[in-house]
Amino acid sequence: MSITKNNKKVIRSWAYFDWANSAYNLVITSTIFPAYYSIITTTAEHGDKVSFFGMSFVNTALSNYALAAAYLIIALMSPVLTSMADHKGNKKVYMKIFTYLGGFSCCCLYFFKLDTLELGVICFALAAIGYAGGFVFYNSYLPEIATADQQDAVSAKGFTYGYIGSVILQLICFVFVLKPEWFGITDASFPPRLSFLLVGIWWMAFAQIPFKVLPKGSPNFNAAEQRKISSGFRELQKVWQQIKEMTLMKRFLFAFFCYSMGVQTVMLVAASFGEKILHLSTSSLIAVILIIQLVAIAGAQVMSRFSKYYGNVNVLIFVVLLWIMMCICAYFVNSATQFYMLAAVVGLVMGGIQSLSRSTYSKYIPEKTADTASFFSFYDVTEKLAIVAGLASFAYIEELTGSMRNSTIALTSFFVSGLLLLLLLKKAESKSVALPTPHHHKII
């Protein structure tokens, strides 16, 4: 069935999906799980080495490989998922499948101890697939529930709900982790495992709000449209053929891929680095992630304002330079205070580079192109492949050299490559016709 756009109840219920699943991103990806995982997999007998189905890995390298595998699966599935979201009329069914996959996987992490390592790592990867897969369909609802002039505001509402919901559950888990004696808890592993269980329950419970209110999908479900489901990869190939003829977009995408390998990896390994290298407590790691999240909101606004006066590519070049300096600093960081300071700067440029990259890409899409969804599908796949490459490289170098500090040097090389490609993009733009923007909104 169709639904009236800009309906407040529908928009609010849609935003609750972000409220539901953002707890996974904060508790599982960023704070309590990385700390718990590193602690239980570091033993006096084997150090930081673990056995996974008979194969030996450095503990943090294994978790990064698992996350890379999860994002690779989603990257390969994304074209098909996007086609489903665009052309099938039952997108809510798929949204539910990924939500329950992620939620139940988090619940199963309650049973994760050293002697159930394989179960824990597999559930960790499945939770990531559930989270990323659900977002494909969540995002596809936006044009269906809001008119174009309201989509920015509605999108921001989802982000706000997600932040508030995740912080509320994080604080609840925080109490159990820091003050187990208040509840008579004597098993040190119980509070973090309880946190994983609560994330899964929270995720699935609050997802019932959008599941109840949102329409089942676009009202264009018929046999002719179903055939388009298999065209996802062909659509990406068609976009790539177009991009190859567009010098500026092609150069930007190569640059974006390179620096995204660094950006996304930093976001996913920050907590593990703090626990393993600096031996920070769980409370300290939670503080670091909250700093990054809070400053990232301001960072997106600051970089957007800068881009109006200095141009998108110039600001991206400046931000990537900051990333290079931060990676070098990370190699030498030795104290919690230094790590906090670094986290604050990371937060500032994290939000900025992500929002500015997407808006810059959108400006390179030809104005007369009707199928912008395919272009953004290509962009999303590029970003996910960058995550796979970044995490796999970080994990491999740690295994090879025995230190996460050395892996930060690899991140530096990703950013340097991105910087060089941005400089080439700037040079190409100076030789081409300027994009149609006001004089104070120039791109170069």
Please summarize what this structure is.
With 444 residues, the protein is an all-alpha fold.
Name the features.
two-stranded antiparallel ribbon, mainly alpha, Growth Hormone, Chain: A, disordered C terminus, 2% strand, 444 residues
Would you spell out the secondary-structure blueprint of this structure?
Elements (H helix, E strand, L loop, with lengths): L7 H23 L1 H9 L8 E4 L2 E4 H29 L3 H18 L8 H24 L1 H4 L5 H28 L11 H24 L9 H4 L5 H13 L2 H32 L3 H29 L1 H21 L3 H29 L7 H30 L2 H28 L13
Antiparallel strand pairs: 1-2
Structure description:
With 444 residues, this protein is mainly α. It has two domains: 1-231, Up-down Bundle (Growth Hormone, Chain: A), CATH 1.20.1250; 246-444, MFS general substrate transporter like domains (Growth Hormone, Chain: A), CATH 1.20.1250. The chain has helices at 8-30, 32-40, 59-87, 91-108, 117-140, 142-145, 151-178, 190-213, 223-226, 232-244, 247-278, 282-310, 312-332, 336-364, 372-401, 404-431, and strands at 49-52, 55-58. A two-stranded antiparallel sheet has the order 1-2. Helix 1 (8-30) packs across helix 7, helix 4 runs antiparallel to helix 5 (117-140) and helix 4 packs antiparallel against helix 8 (190-213). It starts with 7 loop residues before the first helix and ends in a 13-residue tail after the last helix. The relative contact order is 0.14. Mean pLDDT is 83; it is low at 219-226 and 434-444.
